[in-house]
Design brief:
Blueprint lengths: L2 H23 L12 H11 L1 H8 L5 H11 L4 H10 L11
Helix pairs in contact: 1-2, 3-4, 3-5, 4-5
Length: about 100
């Protein structure tokens, strides 16, 4: 596993743990995370915005565009998958940049 993949996996695991901890703190029944309430909404929102979070943590130069794609087309499923793949693409410095 490459360093970028490992960092992404660790970041997503930490974010999921924070979302679940918040849900537990809010007093939600965690067996019904997809149901109504604050806790379920937080978990669903965290999952929905996962590509944007990954892009932010990786300091992707296209993070704002990934967020826009995630917000506008993430609900289609295909838009979410494209945003996630884009967020995980290699971030390389431009040639000649110092």
């Amino acid at each position: 596993m490459s360093t970028d993949s490992r960092d992404t996996a660790i970041g997503l695991a930490i974010f999921a743990a924070i979302a679940i901890a918040f849900a537990w703190y809010a007093g939600a029944d965690l067996s019904q995370l997809g149901g109504h309430g604050v806790a379920g909404s937080c978990v669903v929102l965290a999952f929905y915005l996962a590509p944007s979070i990954v892009a932010y943590w990786r300091r992707h130069p296209s993070a704002p565009a990934i967020l826009l794609l995630d917000l506008l087309l993430g609900w289609t499923g295909l838009g979410w998958i494209i945003a996630l793949i884009w967020a995980n693409t290699a971030v390389r410095p431009k040639m000649g940049a110092r």
